[in-house]
Write a structure and sequence with these properties.
376 residues, Spore Coat Polysaccharide Biosynthesis Protein SpsA, Chain A
């Protein structure tokens, strides 16, 4: 029995209370960061000259998707831009379509890779960067879709004189499959969590789509020279090394969002999480700590709350604290969903946010204890 201020506690109850209160304070801190992030970064009208922009699209056997995406990009209402498509060993009709389209628009540039390499992703992006001629580079996937002719102008409104890295949101509303809702909630949650880390000086990439940085800086820093040990995630790791609190912009406006139209089946979800886990391994110590504290504090808070509701006579106070946290979480969640045009996610927001934490924890532990394959 432990007595404090005239109150008596069982040892187990006291330990649970300490864990509950401590993790509640930690979660309030994360909620404060996310609420600051949610209400900040409102789109400002662009005054003066817009920066020149190259939109780079690596593609392999995505002819049908390019036929839908490229015309919408070439029609953008923007003063100085180009679209650069890098055909990465395609065996469909991509080459012929791009050749035909180049005769119709002088804003389209193309390059073609005809042989496989050990670092296909890094090569195709580097070739796209070298083929580009504009100041800023925006990276899209053939499966991306833009919402209007004003998308590029809205994106550019987030580029300011001190900006060196830009992150835009990607919606999975056009996808089909059993994991669609998971992808949408996961993407939303990651955008808030990773963007909020900017206030601690360590913004993190959550996608390789709808991101931008300067061409000249990429070439001066020798591109992917320092991240070639992480295949298929070089672009995320490059911009991660580049970005900091002062030079990074997160675009928090529905007019800057792009949608994704690929499959979201169970295996796609597994592969998506595996890639994220591999990227996180290359994060800084501070970034890893920031993410892990959030996960473990949420898990401990929920577990200790359930135990205290059963064991403690203070259960009504416990329920009140939990309710306060939930209401606060709902408020900034609704505001954030509205700003990026994902209002339909609201009904299941709290349930899915908890489910994502448990699912991610399961995959993380599975990946941690997975035996490495023997190299012969």
């Amino acid at each position: 029995m432990i007595e404090i201020g005239g109150f008596s506690f069982e040892v187990a109850e006291f330990v649970l209370l300490i864990g509950f209160i401590l993790t509640f304070v930690i979660q309030l801190f994360y909620q404060l960061l996310m609420s600051m992030f949610t209400v900040s970064g409102k789109k400002k009208e662009k005054h003066g000259e817009y920066p020149s922009i190259s939109i780079i699209i690596p593609s392999r056997n995505y002819e049908e998707n390019l036929r839908e995406l490229i015309p919408s990009l070439l029609e953008q209402d923007y003063p100085d831009f180009e679209v650069v498509v890098v055909d990465d060993c395609s065996s469909d009709g991509t080459e012929w379509y791009l050749t035909e389209l180049k005769y119709q628009s002088d804003k389209l540039k193309t390059s073609r890779i005809i042989q496989e390499t050990d670092f296909p992703n890094a090569l195709v992006i580097t070739i796209g960067v070298r083929a580009a001629s504009k100041e800023w580079l925006i990276f899209l996937n053939p499966l991306c879709r833009v919402g209007s002719k004003e998308w590029l102008k809205s994106f550019a409104s987030g580029i300011h004189p001190k900006t060196e890295a830009v992150f835009g949101f990607v919606k999975y509303t056009n996808t089909e499959g059993s994991m669609q809702k998971f992808f949408r909630y996961e993407n939303f949650d990651s955008f808030l969590l990773y963007g909020s880390a900017r206030y601690l000086g360590m913004p993190m990439p959550f996608s390789d789509m709808n991101i931008a940085y300067k061409r000249e800086q990429f070439l001066n820093l020798k591109g992917f020279a320092g991240v070639l040990d992480s295949r298929f995630s070089e672009n995320e790791l490059y911009i991660n090394k580049l970005s900091n609190r002062k030079n990074t912009t997160f675009l928090f406006d529905r007019s800057t969002v792009v949608s994704y139209s690929g499959d979201t089946q169970w295996q796609d979800g597994i592969n998506f999480k595996k890639k994220q886990l591999l990227i996180k391994k290359k994060f800084t110590f501070g970034q890893k700590l920031y993410l892990r504290i959030n996960v473990f504090s949420r898990l401990i808070f929920d577990a200790s709350m359930i135990a205290l509701l059963i064991l403690s006579p203070w259960r009504f106070w416990i329920a009140g604290i939990w309710l306060f946290k939930i209401i606060n979480e709902l408020i900034w969640g609704i505001v954030a969903l509205n700003r990026i045009g994902e209002k339909k996610l609201f009904p299941g927001l709290l349930v899915m946010r908890s489910a994502v934490i448990f699912y991610n924890s399961y995959l993380s532990f599975k990946q941690l204890f997975k035996r490495k394959k023997r190299k012969w």
